[in-house]
Design goal:
- The structure is a homotrimer.
- Chain A is of the alpha/beta class.
- Among the domains of chain A are: about 90 residues, 3-Layer(aba) Sandwich (Udp-n-acetylmuramoylalanyl-d-glutamate--2,6- Diaminopimelate Ligase, Chain: A, domain 1); about 30 residues.
- Helices cover about 15% and strands about 25% of the residues of chain A.
- In chain A, the strands form six sheets. Chain A has a ten-stranded parallel beta sheet with strand order 8-11-14-17-20-25-28-31-34-36, with no helix packed on it.
- In chain A, strand 21 and strand 22 form a beta hairpin.
- The longest helix of chain A has 16 residues.
- The model of chain A has no long low-confidence stretch (mean pLDDT about 95).
- Chains in contact: A-B, A-C, B-C.
- Strand 38 of chain B pairs antiparallel with strand 37 of chain C, so a sheet runs across the interface.
Chain lengths: ~350, ~350, ~350
């Protein structure tokens, strides 16, 4: 990250139409509301357009139909949100990878590391691991035996990757996440208790996958658990053994897929949406927050269950009690209708 | 922690009225039910008052209106629960901080540590970090570059704090928690897939905040994620990018605030209560367990959604099916009413 | 793990009736569908019986009533799923424990380790800890002061165990889990804010317990939090202070027990099922996914709440709105019935 960039260079990178002073120096990103001199802001949601009038940004990224509403420097683009996403990396303030191996790291001699790999303090890399060029493993993370990591991956601190996990290129895995722990597989013993089923499958993750903090992806029982390309996973997500998650699917916080369930491509699971085991969702399914999917979905679209409107607790108590009378109410309604007809 | 304390000293500390033997030696805390000689118990919930009769505690903390019901040593106070809370720290059995730097810790030479700071084994403290006097960082935790920690903080083992996080005084952060990971921000690319938005904001946390185990507080996208003073956070909690949590607010396990949502002061989120993105809650709002808040709340009070009464699964199936007929039932009811009127 | 096992040896171990070639060499496990030469498959769910016809497994584990449907080598057993569970450990491909102490581990001189204990890199074992023979502590895990671990336990990487935790024999604890963090106990201070209650209880865990990844078991406030024998716990589970979980109980992902709640023996909590504080469940209770238990359950059986059928989002919106009219509908229905009677 440089201290500043000229607006001209930014326009060039974004393929944006530049209205104003190309020599303006941009030192950071800001929201329309908080922007001051030197800041680059953006407008992607037209409901904030009124903020343009009093916006003190050095420049604003916006689309043609809003461009007249701002008087200062403008970068006019086709898709303001995407352009903001693209330029945001220029202002990333995370420390640069060291491209060195910290002396406290424990790296098995049979592990193979590509060029320009960064390995932080106390990292443990077990036997047979392969790490692609340009990847970073941050402090106190553990990569289990024979696991493979592609190029330009970023494994944050305190991540646990078990043995035989295969991860593609450009993965980001945030702290506290666990990939390849045993699936939850136990056979009930008729004598009481449970008999653990060794989870001999692995986890296979595609390219361009991001995994948030404290998320878990369990290894398969026999076959592998599979995550496609460009899957994005938020915090506290659970992906159980032998689940399959299709390309480009997004899972928000606490979203979960139970064992052997399959999510199609381009699905979006809102927060706390869960899919039970052995169920299959086709491509392009959206699940609303807190939805529980208990059966296959074979038609793309938006689905929901369970959530009722927010109300005050006394109101809610009244309605909630009635839920326990619903079947009775339905039968009584039917009876009245029948009386009516006669 | 001493082996024992005289009841007189405890009474003095709690500003309690002492009924009985001030020389009695207290060696530990116990519940009314399990207390034996040497134990200090307390009564804060009057439904347990009947246990006083057979209680073998060395002494009991209680309020004036219950004081006659116990025959042994008593500490009569205004607020028994608060008094118990205050005295509990005298019996804390956690190991004392070492006030030393473990030789295996990796501390960047540009980091600055106050007096009497304890740093455990394999702790990693990156460049520019500042840690206030009396703070403890336990084994295998990582503090990212330029992060600031106030005085008398306690960071338990295996905690991950990313770069540029600012935490106030007396914070407690339990194991497995992650502060400052990237928010879940991606722009959909019209060509397919997602374009990551660099999360250039930080996390700012006030004084006297406690964060449970395996909880996550993401860094802001542009502005900061903000946690007020005296906020208490349980395990598995999620606070997304640019959320704002007001002073004294309590969040139980799995409670969550999505991106750019704001919680007021003195709010209480019960377990699994979630607030969707860009929504604002005023001060003094209580959310019942599993509630999903989908719109602003501008009046203080208790709110709920979604939860219906517990019933046996066969009963529940009957009623649940009827939920899918609710709209139809409502229309039919209306029709019957109209027939009635004519 | 050997490269292969003879079918005869496997039959002997499983006490199975061997139909076919006892000299057949088994090199791995597979599903009926994916099995090829050398693979051992199993049939436990009769709905997959049709896959037997085209199954290329070297041998199949199945029960007598299905045995005629496969032409190849068969192991005929009483309980195919249990037999598969038992044999699965022969094919476990996890790296063998080293039975050595890694030089980077930090082990307090007062800690006591049994025979053949494996301690990974950067493990921290504090004062007074006792670890039973044959146990494994993997990289970067921390065992707090005075905690006890039985024999043949397996603590995966990045696990945090606080002080004074007592764990029985043969426990498995997966990465990212936290045992013994402070319970969520705070007394509201009438002056504002919260007064932390020191959590002076511990955690006591029986034998044969498995704990998934990123799960949390808090220490007791005064008495201990107690987990029975053969309890199985999935990922992201929360067990709050002073909860009691009975023997053989299973808790799926995100299942939770709040403070001082008690689960009986042989209970099964499906994903996201939560039990509120101070509530008691008897033995043999099953909770459906997402159920919230708000009162005692004294009769064994299956219980549910809250979940309504999956539907498209437009349908759901219609019905969900009606939920907020339920009480009104019930009163209007009653009124119509009364009119009818007159």
């Amino acid at each position: 990250m440089q201290d500043s960039y000229s607006l001209k260079d930014i326009a060039l990178f974004l393929d944006a139409e530049l209205w104003g002073d190309g020599c303006a120096q941009i030192t950071g990103l800001a929201t329309l509301k908080s922007a001051k001199a030197g800041d680059l802001a953006f407008l992607s949601n037209s409901k904030y357009a009124s903020q343009l009038q009093h916006c003190h940004a050095e420049a604003v990224i916006l689309e043609a139909d809003q461009a007249q509403q701002f008087a200062g420097n403008r970068l006019v683009v086709d898709n303001a949100y995407l352009s903001y996403a693209k330029i945001s990396s220029w202002f990333d303030n995370a420390p640069e990878p060291s491209q060195t191996i910290h002396p406290s790291a424990t790296i098995d001699p049979t592990a193979s590391l590509g060029e320009a790999v960064s390995v932080g303090a106390n990292v443990v890399i077990e036997a047979g691991v392969q790490i692609g060029s340009g990847s970073t493993i941050k402090a106190n993370s553990v990569i289990g035996a024979r696991s493979l990591l592609g190029e330009d991956c970023s494994i944050e601190s305190n991540v646990s990757i078990y043995h035989d996990v295969r991860i593609g290129h450009r993965a980001v895995v945030h702290s506290g996440s666990v990939i390849g722990a045993d699936g939850f597989g136990f056979a009930p013993d008729p004598q009481g208790g449970w008999h653990k089923i060794s989870q001999v499958g692995a986890v296979v993750i595609g390219d361009d996958v991001e995994i948030g903090a404290c998320s878990t992806i369990d290894r398969g029982a026999i076959d592998d658990t599979i995550i496609g390309n460009a899957v994005i996973i938020d915090n506290h997500v659970q992906i159980a053994h032998n689940a399959v998650v299709g390309d480009n699917t997004a899972m928000a916080a606490y979203a979960a897929v139970a064992g052997s369930a399959t999510l199609g491509k381009n699905c979006v699971l809102a927060g706390g949406a869960h899919v039970v085991g052995h169920v299959t969702l086709c491509d392009n399914v959206q699940l609303m927050a807190h939805t529980l999917v208990t059966k296959d979905i074979s038609q793309s679209g938006s689905y929901a269950s369970s959530v009722t409107p927010l109300m005050t607790t006394p109101q809610w108590r009244k309605h909630s009690v009635r839920f326990g009378q619903l079947n009775d109410m339905a039968l009584r309604l039917k009876k009245l209708e029948n009386t009516e007809k006669n």
